[in-house]
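To whoever is on call:

I kicked off a structure prediction for a single chain this morning and the downstream step that reads the tokens threw a length-mismatch warning. I double-checked the sequence; it's 617 residues and nothing unusual in it as far as I can see. Pasting both halves so you can look.
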Amino acid sequence: MTTKPEKFYKLKCVACGKYWDERKTSSHCLSCHGPLDVEYDYGYIKSRLNNYALKNAPISAAKYISFYPILDLDKLISLDEGGTPLKKSKKLSAELKIDNLYFKDETSNPTGGFKDRGSMVEVTKAMEMGAKAIINVSTGNMAASISAYASQAGIPAYVMMPEGMPLGKVAQTLAYGARVIQVRSNYTQVTRLAEEIAAKHGFYLAGDYVFRGEGQKSQAYEIAEQLYWRAPDWMIAPVGCGTNLAAIYKGFKELYTLGMIDKLPRIVGVQPEGANVVYEAYKRKSRKLKEIDKPETVCSAVAVSMPLDGLKLLNAIYESKGLAIQVPDGEALRAGKELANKESIFVEPSAALSVAGLKKMVKQKKIKPDETVVCLASGNGLKDPISMLKILPSPPSIEPSVSEVDKYLKMKLYNIQATVDQDKAEVLWRRRPTKEQVAKAAKKVFGLNLSRSYLKMLHEEVSRFFSKGKEMVRSDLQHIIEDVLKAVPDSQRLIKVEDFSVSTSKHKKAVAKVDVRIKNKRVSTDIAEGVGPVDAIMRAVRKVIKKEKLMNYWLTDFDVKIDQRGTDATVEVSMSLKDEKDNKVIATATSPDVIVAAIEAFERGYNILYNKGNGKK
């Protein structure tokens, strides 16, 4: 009979080999700052396993409780995490010629990602240690997860995150009741700050540390069980701090050590080019990681300047004869679109890295057709939908009539959605194109059969764009086409802002004057003041509308998006208007000039609203 030891595990530094008491540190080695690992007494674990229950009970992360470093099971904090599906691919497998391609869909966890598995163990350990509060640094997903579990445990959670994280993740974290602090710095520097705060105030430091990995290794247990107690040939996953994929490999090793599977998978870590520390070390055949100053990637969940568990992951990659891969942001976004379109799994850009890496491996003939491949779909796309909109088009808006739908079908406007695989930064024209060139591009690039009236409007808008002296790339034309398709034809246009002049300064109100055409009548205004240039111009236009007794309106929303970098970037303005009958419209406009874009969006919105209400007050 095996008696239960006081502890059936120890914390050991992966870098220098020193052992540490978990009450002194569970984040990193206090001697060399290396990552920690849990070293188990596997003889004890094997002696207390109920193999029948393990193989027959419903799958969940808590089912594998014997594999976690938890001493007091009464303090377990669980939200029924795990038990996520392993979906066998149908369309992508056929396209890539891989017979057994699977997606481990972690998006169905309680907070929408794999982090919940680690939070189960980490928050439970915090409760075991009697923590008065938890502090965590996150790029979004972990923040939401820790906050949810801390809320369940009834313990305060302080979350520090680099400024500018996706709003979906920030909103989720705040909703769970966390005390959020945004820091103007990168992930690594914010982590160091959190360590100081934890030490000073006695908070439990949660994050991509040793206990989190112990919960996240349950993904390996589930994958093996879902493959009828076999390991895949390849395990592909996104990499940020490296904790998750290193933990998954450890999970497979534990099953192998206990005789529950007969082989180990080859580990593949995929990073974006703008946050590729592990890849760069792998390329040098090294175990030394070189910090980058500022990660630059749309894959915000893995935008890490120095992976905390990079060494663990490199060890896993080298030991398993695996790979590290980097892919550009565009490939990650397109892979996410393809995963949603072909397998009905909607993930955030970071989660799509595994599919982008898979496609690269297939192209390089790294995978045999009869091998079993598992890609990790790590986080729900609703956490960061804005990033996907960088490549997805804005759908056209129509009036509620059969003829409008027929127009949509006849012009094949749905074809815009099929162009996301093209390079949005491709330069189409450096000088003003002819109407014939615009028609050809609309057909060739977007597959559109535009009517004569829409083509005329499109050419006018393209010409206006070039009046500002900027070259036009594919995404510019796409936005302008989207804008034109939402506008009313010239024959139905009531007002047109022909021109405006505006002046402003740092300490004075902006003043503006406009020339407006109402049908065939040209009206100029007196000077109007506003808090800024756009406000001043809008107030001047309102003077015209009031003077001519035209339809009244209210501006209900105003949004500006910048699709490129630099002061000459193209901007897209979205404006919501409503009339006295509560008719509402949303209009957009694209220009290198934010003021021009705003005025054109207003002009379009007002004309649509006028036609919608038949011009009656």
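Update from on-call: the warning came from a stale cache, not from the record. Cleared it. Sanity check on the structure: DSSP finds 21 helices and 22 strands in the chain.
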